[in-house]
């Protein structure tokens, strides 16, 4: 297996440009299924999850062309059957967005259950509740394939989500775009990528109001035109480099961001004593003044502190003298990475949903493995602060969500390289 080798002891310094948002791209690309014309999607992150969702659409009959590294042309008009059950579909979490898109287009869908990072159960009951309210009947085949169908065109409905769910909010939006009448989603999630999906659909001619609030209204339309659309920057990638700059006591200008999307992250860094300067499309993170303060974090749905930045901040807090706590309120089992940080010398104790971090201990190099995408990012941050060379395995998790992660960290002065497994290297004449 390929690995990252990270030499610790550096202070990150310089500029880094943030890629398009993974979580927006993985909903927007399936959303093209609903379009009656071809689309061009720009600022697409060049990551394995995006390549996989593109492959899935091709398997279904769509034409997906990579115009450049971050631009895709997608023509989904040749998709004739609303079926996505290949092994490719099972390999990623966001495959469930195919349910809403296919259901909205064909009034039926058959999709394999999603995979992806394993840090808790991924129930789709709220998704299916929304589909049912619009007339979609669902069943699960062999515990592996979800089928949803409607005897006729979906109809508008009033849907109250029992829990705030990003996936359910987006999936119901997709299904409702071409439904007859008005669909109202209450207790909707408010994440930036939900707003981005709504903006993309609206640019094609959809009628969606209220995205970014807890009540979203979707009035169905009959036709969606092709457009060129640019995906928003990735707030979690930005938060990762901000945490890395602080952990290494460096100074980094994080470019191509929407500062408002980073409010909860910058608030915690400021509380810790990191100097934050906001510009129109950039944030300067300066931790060169030295001593940082401890803080307590509770993950919450947007606009609260994002669960996807929780592991990275755990690695940061491990470098700060004193006791910090993190309370995880989104996922049941997101602390799997803690054992890997402890292997590197971190003093972290987990009690249920709370992690208690006794920071300030010198981190040491060790062979560690990424347990999920964001945990892998946390290990890179810890390795940058550790004494010696740290070997990180399971890096396929990291490459699911971070574009050119080695190149970007190296541009900031990090000593990081990718060590290839000889069995994965293809030799050509």
Description of the molecule:
With 429 residues, the protein is α/β, with parallel strands linked by helices. It folds into 2 domains: 3-18 and 234-424, UDP-n-acetylglucosamine1-carboxyvinyl-transferase, Chain (Alpha-beta prism), CATH 3.65.10; 22-219, UDP-n-acetylglucosamine1-carboxyvinyl-transferase, Chain (Alpha-beta prism), CATH 3.65.10. The chain has 14 helices and 24 strands. The protein has helices spanning 22-31, 48-60, 87-90, 97-106, 125-133, 166-176, 192-204, 235-247, 263-271, 310-317, 338-343, 373-385, 396-399, 405-411; strands at 3-7, 13-17, 39-42, 63-68, 71-75, 83-84, 108-112, 137-141, 145-149, 158-160, 182-186, 207-209, 215-219, 228-230, 251-255, 275-278, 282-286, 296-298, 322-327, 347-351, 354-359, 367-369, 389-393, 415-419. Strands 22-23-1-24 form a 4-stranded mixed beta sheet. It is globular and about 65 Å long. The mean pLDDT is 94.
Overall spatial form? globular
CATH topology value of the largest domain: UDP-n-acetylglucosamine1-carboxyvinyl-transferase, Chain
Rounded Rg = 22 Å
Per DSSP, the total helix count is: 14
Number of strands: 24
Largest sheet, strands/sense/barrel: 4 strands, mixed
Sequence of strands across the biggest β-sheet: 22-23-1-24
Highest-level CATH class of the largest domain:
Alpha Beta
The proportion of strand residues reads: 25-35%
The CATH architecture category of the largest domain equals: Alpha-beta prism
